[in-house]
């Protein structure tokens, strides 16, 4: 599940969670943008390795999101934390 939408595959679940929670990414970058990016990642993953389980696909999508946007989210969180600590407000 990501951004409030379920992203499923026609593959069997192998008893492990195959869920991608991209809500934090959606919060920072926008729901439609992240959904589009996850779909592109999914297509790329399936084309490169069609024998992966749903769990493995979900993990590769999580890794792709973290690789692409993780550092930016950390920077944004540090800015927010600094603003809170300094008591400044953004107008």
Task: Give the structure's gist in a few sentences.
The protein has 3 helices and no strands.
Quaternary assembly: single chain
Helix content: 55-70%
Radius of gyration: 16 Å
> What is the arithmetic mean of pLDDT?
79
Proportion of strand residues:
under 5%
**Helix and strand element order:** HHH
Main beta sheet? none
| Poorly predicted parts | none
Total number of β-strand segments?
A: 0
* Number of helical elements: 3
Q: Choose one word for the global shape.
A: elongated
Structural class: mainly alpha
Terminus-to-terminus distance: 34 Å
Helix/strand layout:
Layout: H1 23-29, H2 31-48, H3 54-86
Helix pairs in contact: 1-2, 2-3
Structural summary, described in words:
The chain is mainly alpha-helical. 64% of the residues lie in helices and 0% in strands. The protein contains 3 helices and no strands. Helix 1 (23-29) packs across helix 2. It is elongated.
Features:
single chain, 91 residues, mainly alpha, 3 helices
């Amino acid at each position: 599940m990501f951004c409030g939408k379920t992203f499923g595959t026609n593959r069997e679940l192998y008893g492990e969670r195959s869920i991608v929670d991209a809500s934090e990414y959606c919060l920072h970058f926008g729901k439609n943008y992240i959904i589009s990016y996850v779909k592109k990642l999914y297509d790329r993953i399936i084309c490169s390795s069609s024998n992966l389980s749903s769990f493995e696909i979900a993990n590769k999508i999580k890794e792709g999101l973290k690789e692409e946007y993780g550092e930016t989210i950390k920077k944004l969180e540090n800015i927010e934390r600094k603003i809170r600590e300094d008591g400044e407000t953004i107008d």
